[in-house]
Design a protein that fits this description.
Growth Hormone, Chain: A; transmembrane transporter activity; MFS transporter
Length: 401
């Protein structure tokens, strides 16, 4: 089975492209919001606060919107949130000089970010054959790198043609366009989550899912570490394009790794053990970054670390789908996005302090530490990362009543 065969399947290309387009505003916000605020005369301190509010609002809103999708369906959540998020971006674009308006706008845009990622991952089992599911997840995890490359490029184009505020307007329109493509697709319109129990914990009542999400937070810490580390590295080394070049190479590695992983038809290693081995590979790659070699070797290490990231995410997607209790799959995928984002924020905050106090080698080790802790969590929880654990956990509330 080739990726071309997969993309020719009913609705696959439409849903994948719609999701990628609809997610562009989130990738654009991290660049467009700071540029718009700086053009309006805002301090770097306030820029940091605004970007932080957007990230926190997104992290909080994701699981809540995921739960709404599981209860009300995809179109009834995706369409209103796209409009509300667009209003948030429009507020920032119209009044970038007003602190109150900016904070309200980024909070609105972040909290109402349409849950396109978890919605697509909830749809994959319905639109591809069981034997193609892991390849679909691999294509999903690899293609999301295009969002992080394309988002800044759209901002750059908007700034070149008009202004940072124009880029925010473009983001608002792209978000609505992407959601319309997904929400009006037949699979999204007919999708319904199975009946769920009234347990307020939702997917978090699954021990295996909690183990998995906790472990993946360590991968988020590593990504946050890398985002800051490459900026410092680029300041000390002459290389074409600076830090963006290094991050682009990392994204290229993830794209290659994800597509290569999905091309394997049958894995002899079970998903729980596979997750652990891939996490260890990712940890080893980040360990080599501590050497901080000359730019040519550093470029190679950027690709190497990316190679393991998309495969890790792919097998995690498989496990999330298996471990999430009935009726909670969209919320489970939303929790994955939230905890990865929290890990990125933690890694970025910690590495900045370590860079100033202990130097780049110790700063690079922050990513290794995050991944090592994540791998240990997954190792300790291997017994829970099996479908049987899902059944036992889902039945636990019924037995307790």
């Amino acid at each position: 089975m080739s990726y071309a065969d997969l993309l020719r399947g009913p609705h696959v290309t439409r849903l994948l492209l719609g999701t990628l387009v609809g997610r562009l505003p989130s990738a654009m916000a991290s660049v467009a919001v700071p540029l718009a605020l700086r053009q309006a005369g805002a301090s770097y301190g306030f820029v940091g606060v605004a970007v932080g509010v957007f990230a926190i609002a997104s992290a909080i809103g994701g699981p809540l919107l995921g739960r709404l999708v599981d209860r009300a369906g995809q179109p009834l959540v995706l369409l209103p949130t796209a409009l509300v998020a667009a209003v948030g971006f429009a507020v920032v674009a119209i009044a970038p000089g007003s602190r109150t308006a900016v904070l309200a706008g980024v909070a609105l845009a972040g909290a109402a970010t349409p849950p396109l990622e978890p919605c697509l991952r909830a749809l994959w089992p319905d639109i591809v054959a069981p034997g193609k599911l892991e390849a679909a997840y691999a294509l999903d995890s690899a293609s999301q790198e295009l969002v992080f490359v394309g988002g800044p490029l759209v901002v750059a184009g908007g700034v070149a043609v008009a202004s940072p505020s124009a880029a925010l307007w473009a983001g608002a329109l792209l978000g609505i366009a992407g959601v319309l493509v997904v929400a009006t697709a037949p699979p999204a319109r007919v999708w319904k989550a199975p009946a769920r129990s009234g347990d307020w914990l939702g997917p978090l009542r699954s021990r295996g899912l909690v183990v998995l999400l906790t472990g993946l937070t360590g991968a988020g810490v590593a990504i946050g570490t890398l985002n800051v580390l490459v900026v410092h590295y680029a300041e000390d080394h002459a290389l074409p394009g600076g830090a963006p070049t290094l991050l682009a190479l990392n994204a290229l590695g993830a794209l290659i790794g994800g597509l290569a992983y999905g091309a394997v038809r049958h894995w002899r290693i079970a998903p729980p053990r596979r997750t652990l081995l891939l996490m260890l590979g990712l940890t080893a790659g980040y360990g080599l970054l501590c050497l901080l070699p000359a730019p040519p070797l550093m470029a190679g290490l950027m690709i190497l670390t990316g190679l393991f990231l998309a495969p890790v995410l792919t097998v995690v997607f498989v496990l999330v789908g298996e471990l999430a209790p009935a009726g909670t799959v969209t919320e489970a995928f939303a929790w994955l996005v939230t905890l990865m984002t929290a890990g990125v924020a933690l890694g970025s905050a910690v590495v900045g302090t370590v860079l100033e106090t202990a130097g780049p080698t110790w700063a690079a080790s922050c990513g290794v530490a995050g991944l090592a802790v994540g791998a240990l969590v997954i190792l300790a929880g291997q017994a829970h990362l099996v479908p049987a654990a899902r059944e036992e956990t889902a039945e636990a509330p019924a037995r307790a009543v």
